[in-house]
Design goal:
This protein is mainly alpha-helical and 170 residues long. It is built from seven helices and two strands; from the N terminus they run ααααααββα. The chain has a two-stranded antiparallel sheet. Helix 2 packs antiparallel against helix 4, helix 3 packs across helix 4 and helix 4 crosses helix 5.
Length: 170
């Protein structure tokens, strides 16, 4: 294939704008979700307790710590700070596991994703489950974009820096 005219999907994945937009969207989602839960940590603690997987003595630390981690990871992703994408990926894996647990056990609870205003139903858990899988796909796209864009081999075998700024390489 001609290197001058790569496949449109490859151009999309390697585009610094794709990287920036997806990074901003995911970061904003986590920033918002963390902020909303931090505002009303008591309501979030009640949502966590409905799943029955966190001991009562740890509800308060979880109800404050998890949203704080979401908030900081979202902010870190927006600012492109090292490690934030890995934290968000890890959080999404945990969230998918918890939502899967809720679906398999036929729990009729709020998913706890954004606020207690979400509709509590089995379909809500399934919707949140698929939404989180979609966000994991976005994370993989960011990882793929980074690995394909940060360093690029030239025809003579040397390595050149790509379009992403030095800060985006981290």
């Amino acid at each position: 294939m001609n290197n001058q005219n790569p496949h449109p999907l490859k151009r999309f994945i390697e585009s610094p704008w794709t990287y920036r937009v997806i990074r901003f969207i995911l970061g904003s989602i986590f920033l918002y979700a963390g902020f909303i839960k931090l505002i009303d940590s008591k309501a979030f603690a009640q949502v966590i307790s409905q799943y029955g997987i966190v001991p009562d003595v740890l509800l308060a630390p979880f109800a404050i710590g998890l949203p704080a981690l979401e908030f900081l990871a979202g902010l870190g992703l927006i600012l492109n700070m090292r490690g934030s994408l890995t934290v968000i990926f890890s959080l999404l894996v945990v969230f998918v596991g918890v939502l899967g647990y809720g679906i398999l056990n036929d729990l009729n609870v709020d998913c706890g994703c954004f606020s207690d205003a979400e509709i509590t139903s089995q379909n809500n858990l399934k919707l949140a489950f698929y939404r989180d899988l979609f966000m994991i796909a976005g994370v993989f796209l960011l990882f793929l974009s980074r690995s394909n864009s940060v360093l690029r081999s030239t025809h003579d075998g040397s390595v050149e820096k790509n379009k992403l700024s030095k800060k985006e390489e981290a």
